[in-house]
Amino acid sequence: MAQAAAVAKPPAPPRRRGASATPRRLPYLLIAPAALLMLGFIAYPVLSVFYYSLQNYNPTKPWRNGYAGFDNFVHAFTQDPQFWDTLIFSAKWVVVEVGLQLLFGLALALIVNQTFVGRGIGRAMVFSPWAVSGVLTSAIWVLLYNSQTGITRYLADMGIGSYGTSWLSDTSTVFPATVVADLWRGVPFFAILILADLQSVSKDLYEAAEVDGASRLKQFWHITLPHLKDAIVLSTLLRAVWEFNNVDLLYTLTGGGPAGETTTLPLYIANTSVDAHNFGYASALTTVAFVILLFCSIVYLRLSKFGGEK
Fold it and tell me: Which residues are within 8 A (CB) of 51 and not within 5 positions of it... i.e. 6 or more apart?
C-alpha cells in the first residue's frame, strides 16, 4: 500500500530559476527608493562642496569667478592666520566641552540609576534640557547673562562684582560663560546614553563583587566602566563632531566675539560664506574640516578599539 501511494503521488512542479532569490532581494527593493533619495540629498551637497572648493566663486564679484585649483587650500594653510586661530579654538572647545559633559553626564547617570523616591521626576528634570533646541537654549542663556536683568545683576546686589558687568563681552569670562551654557544642554545627552547602558548591567556581578569584598570604587572601575566602554566611546565621538560643528549657540551668544575669542572654524566658515559671499574659499575650509573630522574619527575608533572585547 505504501509503495502504491508513493507511486501515485504527483511529482513536484519544477522550481523556477531565481524564485528563491526574489524573497531575499525584496527588502532591498522596498528600501531602494528611500535609500536613493537619501543618497541624493547627501551626495549632491558633499560633491558640490568639493567642486566649489576648487573654484573662485563669489556671486558679488562674478568677474573673478573661475577655476582656482588648490589656491584656496594654499591660502588657508599659508596666508590666513584666522584659519589657524579658529581651528585651535575649535580643538580647545571640543576637548573642554566633551570632557566636562562626559564627566557630569556619567555622574548624573549613576545618580538617577539608583532607587529613590521621585526617581521618575528626577530623570525627567535631568533629561529635559536635551529636548530644548539650540537657538532656544541660546536665548535662555542670553537672558541669564544679561547685564541688567541677569545673573550679574543679582550677584551685584549681593556685593559680588559690579553692576553692568557682561560676561559675554569680557575676553576673560566669555569662554567659561559659553562653556557653562553648552554644558546645560550637552550633559543630558551623555546621561541618557550612559543610563540606557547601565540598565543592562547584571546585578549579579555587583552582588558577587560585594561577596568578594570589593568596594564601591572597585566595582565601578572593574564592572561599570568596562561595560560602559562602547557607550562612552560612541557618545564622545558623536558629541565631539557636534561640538566641532557648533554654530547656533556661539553665534547667538557671542557672534564669535569679543575680538574673535569664540570663533570656531564652522562659525568662521559661516561668516565667510554668508557675510563675505566667498563661497569658494568657504567650501575649501569646509573640505578641510571634513577631512580633519574623518581622520580624527578613524584614529579615535582605532585607538579605543570600539566594538572589541570589554
Answer: 283
